[in-house]
Write a structure and sequence with these properties.
Layout: H1 2-9, H2 13-21, H3 25-33, H4 36-45, H5 49-83, H6 94-106, H7 114-126, H8 137-148, H9 151-159, H10 161-164
Amino acid sequence: MINTICEVLKISRSAYFKYKKEERPIISLLEKYFSQEDLEEFLNTKKISKLEETQNQNSTILLMEDYAHFSLSSKLEQLFNIFGIPDFTKFLPKKLFLKILQDLKKEDISHLNAKDFLLQRLKGYETSLTKLEHPNHPKILYDFVENKLAKIEVYILILNAEKYLK
């Protein structure tokens, strides 16, 4: 690994040991976060594929989140139009639904598990809300989340609850 680091930094072995003795951060960084193979790949290709893949994944997630904002607004509008309901308050009391989403926001959620968490919470309230004027509305909301919203859309809804429940 020493020879590879020397090659990356264009320094001699003695310079490497001098840098190491001086505790220069670049040496610690290279030794801690990169393998021999990573550095060799960089020397050969001027990139490290596992970092490129991570960057591509992050870009994809950002694109998915942008699309989810658009599609979530559209789907919520469609839901309200179909049932003639102007907002979420007819499904669950607004404060309660907002609290559910805010509580979920505090948990360790991701775009992969947000939908499961929300469905679990809604399921818990479904039976206790049968005294509402329209007892099927909690079930309608549960079914809507389960069948119409993608995981990323639920994640966006949780992160932006105030925006969607204004």
